């Protein structure tokens, strides 16, 4: 059976604008992602379902592309029988596990110090707390991973596509070339490779390196149309990925040139790269900076020099 993908556009309080949720009607009625927890989002969600002759009661399961608040908040509206399906790393975020929240803060304070960020008191707690403002309190009922098939829509193949989030999954229908891509590739903005606290016994993942690998993987897949988490549908993903790679290379090169002139901390570099944005969007801009530093370190172009608990970088 050929099934349609219904796109819902839900407002968010974030700069990125609307988020898209998708309804798949196959053996099950499945919602992919669901919007932030705000009254405006709830209203838009219910109204648009109605336009497609659906209601919240019709939804059997929700599949998550990743754990960010703009994609999971409205899980709070779902009825008890609705199954939540996604990567296992969604769980601590969507359940708002207090132990994990504390671990996020405990990771961030020394890490930001090491990066040379002058933090005011409680700033890390505030940043962590803020990231949950529009999120939900829910649980993952069914964990899926690379190579699985989506229950109720067996032609959708599950892919792990980390980088923007460690929990990030994408779904490819090989028969049609339809690809539900979450925030992996967007037309409107380049996805941020966000830093995340590592899970127990693990080291910090290098998000930008992962992100580039995920994009490279897309280039080799039989994709026709990408159904993204924000912005327009994508039908020429090769061009867009090349564009993203070029922009990243340019930024890495700018950083390398800066470090050739003088050794710097990650925070100094961040201020040079994002002089207007860095204060307001500290976490995003630092994530981008750390990502590029990981790339340059991996390529052997720069090296780290720890001095009194702060890491300086210099060009080789
Ligand atoms: Zn996201």
Automatic annotation (TrEMBL):
Q: Which residues form the Metallo-beta-lactamase domain?
A: 18-230
- Fetch the InterPro entries from UniProt: Metallo-B-lactamas, RibonucZ/Hydroxyglut_hydro, Sec-metab_biosynth-thioest
List, alphabetically, the SUPFAM superfamilies matched.
Metallo-hydrolase/oxidoreductase
Carries keyword Hydrolase? yes
> Which keywords does this Swiss-Prot/TrEMBL entry list?
Hydrolase
Q: Which SMART domains match?
A: Lactamase_B
Any one Pfam family match given in the protein's UniProt record, by short name: Lactamase_B
- What Gene3D superfamilies would the database entry show? Ribonuclease Z/Hydroxyacylglutathione hydrolase-like (3.60.15.10)
A GO molecular-function term, please?
hydrolase activity
TM ranges are: none
Q: What is this protein called?
A: MBL fold metallo-hydrolase
């Amino acid at each position: 059976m050929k099934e349609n993908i219904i796109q819902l556009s839900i407002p968010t309080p974030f700069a990125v604008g609307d988020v898209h949720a998708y309804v798949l009607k196959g053996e099950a009625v499945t919602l992919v992602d669901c919007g932030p927890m705000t009254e405006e989002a709830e209203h838009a969600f219910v109204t648009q379902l109605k336009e497609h002759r659906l209601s919240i009661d019709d939804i059997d399961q929700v599949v998550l592309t990743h754990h960010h608040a703009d994609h999971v908040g409205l899980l709070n509206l779902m009825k008890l029988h609705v199954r939540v399906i996604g990567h296992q790393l969604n769980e601590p975020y969507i359940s708002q596990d207090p132990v994990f929240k504390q671990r996020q803060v405990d990771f961030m304070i020394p890490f930001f110090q090491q990066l040379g960020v002058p933090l005011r008191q409680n700033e890390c707690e505030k940043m962590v707390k803020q990231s949950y403002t529009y999120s939900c309190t829910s649980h993952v009922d069914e964990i899926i991973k690379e190579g699985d098939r989506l229950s109720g829509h067996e032609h959708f193949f599950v892919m792990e596509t980390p980088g923007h989030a460690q929990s990030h999954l994408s779904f490819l229908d090989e028969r049609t070339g339809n690809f539900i891509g979450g925030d992996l590739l967007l037309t409107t903005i380049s996805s941020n490779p966000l830093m995340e606290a590592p899970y127990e016994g693990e080291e910090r993942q290098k998000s930008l390196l992962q992100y580039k690998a995920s994009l490279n993987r897309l280039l080799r897949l039989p994709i026709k149309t990408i159904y993204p988490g924000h912005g327009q549908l994508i039908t020429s993903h090769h061009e867009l990925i090349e564009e993203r790679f070029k922009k990243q290379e340019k930024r890495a090169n700018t950083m390398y040139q800066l470090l050739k002139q003088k050794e710097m901390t990650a925070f100094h570099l961040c201020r040079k790269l994002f002089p207007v944005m860095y204060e307001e969007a500290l976490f995003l801009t630092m994530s981008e900076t750390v990502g590029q530093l990981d790339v340059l370190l991996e390529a052997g172009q720069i090296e780290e020099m720890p001095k009194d608990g702060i890491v300086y970088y210099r060009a080789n």
